[in-house]
Automatic annotation (TrEMBL):
CDD domains named in the record: ParAB_family
Gene3D superfamilies: P-loop containing nucleotide triphosphate hydrolases
Any Pfam family hit: VirC1
Domain of life: Bacteria
InterPro entries, sorted: DNA_Partitioning_ATPase, P-loop_NTPase, VirC1
Name under which the protein is recorded: Chromosome partitioning protein
Length: 220
């Protein structure tokens, strides 16, 4: 089972929106997916209440000690991918999630202040020796300032592609209890999330190969 964590102490960067969008996109590729909510704010739980489709399953964790047993249980039940949405903080729960993640995804809006605000999270990820990638989210649909933001993020580490533009479909999908690929299957927001899932899936596959070759994997 692969464990993806959406993390950054910067609020409103898109952790929950991308968690949902990616979970549904992966599920539509026939993957067995679970969403784990590690944020008392409850964005994912409320989305699930609005949702008519029973999948993906949603689990909540409150205590850091709950994470590892939950991941073990999901793995035993045959879940292929767990996506963990975290709160905008580097609290002990977020730290435990990072420690358990195969890949940490750090969404950031394309502004210097937002990118800088992710640095404490990046430091924590590096301290725990986890893999990570930034996602540039809520980018303007047109405009030339993006390359500057992308260069800043690339200088801090890996940048997942493509960028995810600011599009109403993401907000409307969340409100409707849907993933954006369900809400507007033929649309640019959906295309971006499908492509982003492809990028992530390829990196998870690489991680599995490394693991198979005996690469050191820190215990979570
Ligand atoms: N690509 C996007 N296009 C349009 N709206 C977006 C996009 N990504 C996120 N949003 C919107 O931005 C707001 C914040 O997103 P979200 O709640 O996912 O952030 P978060 O990082 O989970 O926030 P928090 O730190 O409070 O948990 C929401 O209203 C969401 O719908
Ligand atoms: Mg959130």
């Amino acid at each position: 089972m692969h464990v993806l964590a959406l993390v950054t102490q910067k609020g409103g960067s898109g952790k929950s929106t991308l968690s949902v969008g990616l979970a549904v996109a992966a599920m539509q590729r026939s993957e067995r997916v679970a969403l784990i909510e590690a944020d008392a704010q409850g964005t994912i739980s409320r989305w699930k209440e609005r949702r008519e489709h029973p999948y993906p399953r949603v689990e909540r964790v409150v205590d850091p000690a709950e994470i590892e047993p939950l991941i073990a249980r999901l793995r035993a039940e045959g879940v292929w991918l767990a996506i963990i949405d975290t709160a905008a903080t580097t609290n002990s729960l977020a730290m435990r999630v990072i420690a358990c993640a195969d890949l940490c995804l750090i969404p950031a809006r394309p502004s210097p202040a937002d990118i800088e605000a992710a640095i404490p999270t990046l430091i924590a990820i590096r301290r725990l020796n986890r893999r990570f990638a930034f996602i540039l989210n809520q980018t303007p649909t047109r405009g030339g300032r993006l390359s500057e933001a992308a260069t800043s993020l690339s200088s801090l580490g890996v940048l997942a592609l493509p960028f995810v533009a600011q599009r109403n479909d993401h907000q409307d999908a969340l409100g409707a209890g849907l993933g954006v690929t369900e809400f507007a299957p033929v649309g640019k927001a959906s295309d971006e999330i499908v492509s982003l899932w492809g990028w992530i899936a390829a990196h998870l596959a690489e991680e599995s190969d490394d693991y198979g070759k005996g690469a050191l994997k820190a215990a979570c």
